[in-house]
Amino acid sequence: AQAFQVSAPQSADRTRAVSITLALEPYDKQGFGALYFSSLDPVDLTGHVYVPAMRRVLRQTFGTRGDSWNATDYLFEDVGGYLGAAEWMNWKIVGQKTMLLPTVANAKYGKDVKAVFDVDNAPHWNPKVDWQPRPVYLLEAKPKIPDYPYSRMLMMVDAETFTIPYKEAYDKKGELWKIILGGGNPSTDPKTKPMMPGFGMA
């Protein structure tokens, strides 16, 4: 899938951001498109979804607290590191360090999976991207919601871009469940435009 997110101007409805997602593959997801609006307030995402099989656009409210994103291993709020409301979590800065991360990934696009990932060498999902030593804040989030799928999350927040290139999610037993890694591609105009979509994987 290809996706990008842009900041929205302050408005009367307190829109925080708008994101557009278009799925190019696999075949059963091809043609799926979605336009999401997230709010500054702790409310669910709203938006419009195009369903190819129905050839219709549906207006929906997305229950993002632990719902799967488009039948993948991502939750809605895993997109971009964390897309949920700040009020859903208890937050704590647990450290600051320098880590080797693909914040500016220069990821390649295309349908050839071997152009994007090294699948021949263990563990067979090595992303072919650029890595840089990055200053990060270690941010721990514990849900206030009792039935939330994660018991806690540990995020590495880039201290310069404030993106989240690395995240660990732990299950209800406190055991590591997911590692989410992602990065962006350079902006075509850093003064006026955000970073371009790069890659994401769980």
Task: Tell me about this structure.
- This protein has one helix at residues 113-116; strands spanning 2-7, 15-22, 33-39, 45-51, 56-62, 89-101, 117-118, 126-127, 132-143, 152-158, 166-170, 176-185, 196-201.
- It has 202 residues and is mainly beta.
- A 6-stranded antiparallel sheet has the order 6-9-10-11-12-13, with no helix packed on it. It has a 5-stranded antiparallel sheet with strand order 1-2-3-4-5, with no helix packed on it. Strands 7-8 form a two-stranded antiparallel ribbon.
- The radius of gyration is 17 Å and the shape is globular.
- The two termini are 14 Å apart.
- 24% of the residues are buried.
Strands of the largest sheet, in order across it?
A: 6-9-10-11-12-13
Q: What is the share of helical residues? A: under 10%
Strand/helix succession: EEEEEEHEEEEEEE
Q: What sort of overall outline do the alpha carbons produce when their principal axes are compared?
A: globular
How many helices? The count is 1
* Structural class assignment: mainly beta
| Cα distance spanning the termini | 14 Å
Mean model confidence by pLDDT: 81
- What is the total tally of β strands? 13
Rg over CA atoms: 17 Å
Strand-helix topology:
Elements lengths: L1 E6 L7 E8 L10 E7 L5 E7 L4 E7 L26 E13 L11 H4 E2 L7 E2 L4 E12 L8 E7 L7 E5 L5 E10 L10 E6 L1
Antiparallel strand pairs: 1-2, 2-3, 3-4, 4-5, 6-9, 7-8, 9-10, 10-11, 11-12, 12-13
